[in-house]
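Hi R.,

As promised, here are both runs. First protein below:
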Amino acid sequence: MGDQPPDGPARGGPRWPVVAAMAVAVAGVAVVVVAAWPRDSGMRVRWAVSTFGPVVAPPLLAGDRLFAASTDGTVRCLDRDSGQELWVSTAPRLAVRCGMALAGGTLYCCSDANLVVALSASDGSVRWEHETRGPMQSAPVVYDGRVYAAGDDGILRVLSAHTGVLERYYRRPSYVAADLAVSSNGVLAMGCGDGFLHLIDLTQPAVRALNGEWRPEEKRAEAQAAIHGDPVVDGSRLLFGSDDGRLHCVDLRTAQVLGDVVVADAVRSRPCVDEQTAYFGANDGCLYAADITTGYVLWRRRCGGAVRSQPVLLRGVLYFASDDGSLWAVAPRDQGRVLGRLRFGSAISGGLVGEGDRLYFGCDDGAVRCVESYLPRS
């Protein structure tokens, strides 16, 4: 293959239309809806913005703005308080099914339609796009002026954050199944469908093989099944789930296994870590609380559907979603006692993000929602 990169060249922007919109109740335009307030739930929907496709990617919260992507081919910037649309980017083939990254005023998105796209965070205009040879369904990360993105073809791409030009690449024999994660000291974590987690030190000099491929020094941890659970960096350790029903904890520097938590079904939920306790969901329809150091399950809460999204801990209350379209609030220090529940009738496939007393998430019915909690501190 010589020095040929595995993808097409980066192309500069802006080239696609950017729509500045107010959220009004007109057909063909997103609608802000304020929903009812169930008295026994402890939560209420503050606002909801409609899109024209399932919202399966977790939103990104940045200051007073919320960035949300839909499979209808749009990325929206919303006012986090009111849900008002500040801009909508409608670049073709922008079908985002994974998380996004924000750095230096640029929003980086991986598209299911074989693209990595950089958008201006201020107006949504396309700064550049890089075409790939396969779907990109893992969230990118940005470190030291470079974008790291991996896809179904098993190739980790290193792109210039400013231009989108491919600087180097690293090919693996299996698809990348989970979002990428990077620690503050430059260790990149990449989980693959063959059950291997790769830890790459990005601070080491890049070594290129004769064919132009990057040959990084890496350490590996092995699971017994595909790794679809998005990893979480917690200090010097990394936690991730796998399809063999385990939550793994490894040392970021050595890839040494520090402990495992074993449950009944695949763990595809990104864990929420609070000191020595990890909260995570599984496909068996349960939310678990486990001691990271011992692997002991402290409690579990059964729900009406698989728990695939990341739980969020706000003011002592733990919030999570299940595939039956329910948003739950439980007391983490009281055996997961249910404090409230909201039913939406549509799966919450993307992760939850939250701050203060508000939660933000997307649903398969095409809505991006903000839920306000008035539950007391647990």
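And here is the second one, sequence first, then its structure tokens:
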Amino acid sequence: MTPTSRALIAGAVSASAMNTVTYLDMAVRARPASSAGEGSAGRLADLAHVGLKALR
């Protein structure tokens, strides 16, 4: 296995672990998902004069 393959696998495993822990924390504490990403994307879109379509 090449070093690049190992790095890709390690990255995928760590991202999966982080997502699992995050969702477990949300479930245990009964917290909703954060809207920070949505707010940041909206501000960047406004600065770039780009419209974002709502997916709801």
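A quick note on the second one: Residues 3-47 form one domain. Let me know what you think.

Best,
J.
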